[in-house]
């Protein structure tokens, strides 16, 4: 009789979990004893948590996964202030997926093992202990390995905690749950190396993949930043949560922070509002400065110089870029981007655009393969000025010509130039970090070092910076409209 009753109860529980397949909010409500014990006085999730769970359920229903054909990954990214309950919702998501998707596999990460053990996994253990289905799983939450697995399927139905050190990146490779759900949860995502994000991409090709990223937006660079406001933002479902809008937060402390630091301070932006700071500690050009230039009205006269900058790709995944700026207007002439073209083809493009726009000066970075473009342009009777980024700067305070060009561009942006609403350009302009050499000269981060951080080469920004290599005198008096064909000039900055 007891066995029959137990079997019937288990069947009912399994049926209940099946009802929650596309309803994580229902799962949270039925899995835990709300209003009792440690949940005394709590009727359920906070408003933002409930909204989040509803949206996850909606996305599941849209995809209609059948266990056979792979569906588009569910990708959520949330930037927030402190104390909003990220650890709780992380625990709920883990247990919802584990309860409703047999043979799922997951990885949960944070920047340090201490954070994983004392926050993320401790929170999971707390909710596990009061869960209606806790007897289905074994959880390790102490020293050593941190994991949770189904008691009958230890190797094929589980979730593991893993620190996000780059040397552990293989742990985030494809989890291969083609008939179920591979899932990844990143806590404090701003501090997770970009390499980990990149490796995770390999696990999103089969089954019903899910990714959930949570974090305080502490850095104005990196993959979390790019996912939230940069070039990858269109791929994810994003949320920005102000701690003051969350019921469980300490409003007195939040108000104190606002009083102490100011509503618009970076401290309040990051820790209260869930916004990225105006400028990172090492960021050469601040994000707010760039944002302020997008699409602004600027005064441009017919005799303002037209200047072209050409950055030549050096590596296989880089792109060659041509930027044409008319005075303070860097938007009206479209960005030209080229991948996989040889120097002869690129030089032909420079010649074509020179005939179209009749620039007063064309600056080309002649370092590396760029020298071939310079030579070919001259063979085509296109006057160009060669700039070698690695050469000694002509202005005091800069380590080399690249830093000088960027310094001039930084000043121009601060004064106000019209920039296109292009996420790649914005990422390029704001992603470069800087320091000082032994002579106390400004030195920009190398492209190779940016790649190590998971950022792309800032080819667009380098092309724009080239247009500020040297002053260009206005020479366009006497022409009308956009007919640059009447411009005659000779310019030698040296």
Description of the structure:
- The chain has 16 helices and 15 strands.
- It has 494 residues and is an alpha/beta fold.
- A hairpin with a 2-residue loop joins β4 and β5.
- The chain starts with a helix and ends in a 28-residue tail after the last helix.
- The protein is elongated, with a radius of gyration of 28 Å.
- α4 packs across α5, α8 packs antiparallel against α9 and α14 packs across α16.
- Helix content is 36%, strand content 16%.
- It has 2 domains: 257 residues, P-loop containing nucleotide triphosphate hydrolases (Rossmann fold, 3-Layer(aba) Sandwich); 197 residues, Nucleotidyltransferase, domain 5 (2-Layer Sandwich), CATH 3.30.420.
- The strands form 3 sheets. The chain has an 8-stranded mixed sheet with strand order 3-4-5-2-6-7-1-8, with helices on both faces. A 5-stranded mixed sheet has the order 11-10-9-12-13. A two-stranded antiparallel ribbon has the order 14-15.
Task: Supply the key terms.
single chain, 494 residues, alpha/beta, 2 domains, five-stranded mixed sheet, disordered N terminus
Total number of helices: 16
Overall average residue pLDDT: 88
Q: Given the C-alpha coordinates, what overall shape results?
A: elongated
Q: Measure the end-to-end span.
A: 98 Å
Total number of distinct structural domains: 2
Please state the structural category: alpha/beta
Low-confidence sequence ranges? 1-5, 477-494
In short:
This protein has helices spanning 2-19, 24-31, 47-63, 86-100, 113-129, 194-200, 223-229, 251-261, 266-273, 287-291, 343-357, 370-379, 401-415, 423-431, 447-452, 459-466, and strands at residues 74-80, 105-110, 137-140, 147-150, 153-163, 182-186, 210-215, 237-241, 306-311, 320-326, 336-338, 361-365, 385-387, 434-436, 442-444. It has 494 residues and is of the alpha/beta class. α8 (251-261) runs antiparallel to α9 and α14 crosses α16 (459-466).
């Amino acid at each position: 009789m007891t066995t029959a009753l137990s079997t019937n109860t288990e069947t009912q529980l399994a049926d209940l979990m099946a009802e929650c397949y596309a309803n994580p909010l229902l799962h949270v409500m039925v899995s835990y004893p709300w209003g009792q014990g440690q949940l005394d006085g709590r009727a359920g999730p906070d408003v933002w948590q409930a909204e989040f769970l509803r949206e996850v359920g909606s996305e599941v229903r849209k995809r209609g996964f059948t266990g056979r054909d792979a569906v588009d990954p569910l990708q959520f990214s949330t930037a927030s202030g402190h104390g909003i309950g990220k650890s709780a919702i992380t625990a709920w998501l883990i247990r919802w997926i584990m309860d409703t998707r047999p043979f799922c596999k997951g990885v949960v990460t944070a920047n340090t093992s201490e954070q994983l053990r004392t926050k993320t996994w401790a929170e999971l253990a707390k909710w596990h202990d009061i869960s209606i289905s806790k007897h289905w799983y074994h959880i390790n939450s102490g020293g050593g390995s941190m994991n949770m697995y189904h008691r009958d399927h230890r190797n094929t139905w589980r979730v593991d905690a893993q620190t996000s050190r780059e040397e552990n990146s293989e742990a985030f490779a494809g989890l291969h749950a083609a008939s179920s759900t591979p899932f990844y949860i990143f806590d404090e995502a701003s501090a997770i190396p970009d390499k980990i994000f990149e490796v995770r991409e390999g696990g999103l090709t089969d089954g019903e993949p899910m990714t959930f990223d949570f974090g305080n937006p502490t850095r104005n660079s990196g993959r979390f930043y790019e996912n939230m406001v940069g070039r990858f933002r269109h791929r994810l479902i994003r949320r920005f949560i102000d701690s003051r809008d969350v019921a469980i937060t300490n409003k007195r402390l939040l108000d104190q922070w606002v009083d102490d630091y100011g509503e618009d301070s970076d401290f309040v932006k990051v820790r209260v509002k869930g916004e990225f700071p105006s400028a990172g500690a090492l960021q050469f050009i601040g994000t707010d400065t760039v944002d302020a230039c997008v699409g602004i009205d600027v005064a441009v006269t017919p005799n303002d110089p037209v200047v072209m900058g050409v950055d030549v790709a050096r590596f296989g995944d880089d792109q060659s870029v041509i930027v044409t700026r008319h005075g303070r207007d860097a938007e009206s002439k479209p960005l030209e981007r080229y991948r996989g073209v040889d120097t002869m083809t690129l030089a032909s493009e420079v010649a074509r655009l020179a005939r179209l726009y009749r620039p007063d000066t064309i600056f080309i970075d002649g370092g590396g393969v760029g020298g071939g473009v310079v030579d070919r342009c001259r063979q085509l009777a296109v006057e160009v000025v060669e700039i070698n980024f690695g050469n000694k700067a002509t202005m005091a305070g800069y380590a080399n010509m690249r830093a000088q060009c960027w310094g001039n561009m930084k000043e121009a942006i601060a004064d106000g130039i019209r920039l296109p609403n292009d996420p790649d350009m914005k990422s390029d302009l704001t992603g470069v970090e800087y320091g000082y050499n032994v002579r106390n000269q400004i030195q920009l981060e190398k492209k190779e070092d940016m790649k190590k951080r998971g950022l792309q080469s800032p080819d667009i920004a380098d092309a724009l910076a080239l247009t500020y290599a040297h002053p260009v005198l206005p020479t366009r008096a006497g022409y009308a409209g956009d007919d640059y064909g009447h411009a005659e000039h000779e310019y030698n900055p040296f």
